Amino acid sequence: MTNIKAFIFDLDGVIVDTARYHFLAWQKLAQELGIEFTHEHNEQLKGVSRVRSLDIILELGGVQASQEEKDKWLIQKNEDYLSYLVNIDESEILPGVLPVLHYLKNKNQLIALGSASKNARPILEKTGVMPLFDAIVDGNDVSNAKPDPEVFLQAAKKLNATNENSIVFEDSVAGIQAANTANMVSIGIGDATTLHEAKHLFKDFTFIDEAFLDTLIN
Length: 218
Ligand code: B16
Ligand code: MG
Prior knowledge:
Elements: E1 6-9, H1 19-32, H2 39-42, H3 50-61, H4 67-85, H5 97-106, E2 110-114, H6 120-126, E3 135-137, H7 150-158, E4 166-170, H8 173-181, E5 185-189, E6 200-202, H9 210-217
Parallel strand pairs: 1-2, 1-4, 2-3, 4-5, 5-6
Bound molecules: 1,6-di-O-phosphono-beta-D-glucopyranose (B16) and magnesium ion.
């Protein structure tokens, strides 16, 4: 069983173009709190849990808050985020992702989700890709957020694959660090400067060809 490969996909910013909706919802809250929040700041939030994301924004603004206020803002942010997702469908899937998923599926490879999001399941349902996944691990399943590798370790375990035979696709610095810590093959999707710790780097999935996937499979 040791030769089984596990292909683990992050969700936001890898499979679907929802990272921009997280940004818009956080930016709205930051504005209300008088905190400057830029795209550069947002890189620190990618792959990070909702609770930790709020703490980072409050730290950026030097804002102290009670637990009650934080709970209120977390609900508000998630409601704003969900309002962007009401009408999402398969058109939200990022370019090149579906051909890669289908190629791996046709080659009988195992596919898992490894996402920090507690909204992952409805997003997979709405975009129609749920049937392609053999295992799902999301923000509801883990106690330690990326860069802790827990989410990817759980995914590999569900697929009965070793860490060395697990391949992780990620758009966040925290996620690449999590994969590297677990001795998995990290594949960064996005900007080379931001994701310089990734073992392999692609601007997006349209740059991933079948020959490269075959090297991962074999
Ligand atoms: P939610 P991923 C992560 O998803 C996002 O990158 C991150 O920005 C977000 O804060 C986190 O999920 C929690 O999401 O508020 O929906 O539970 O990239 O790990 O798929
Ligand atoms: Mg992501």
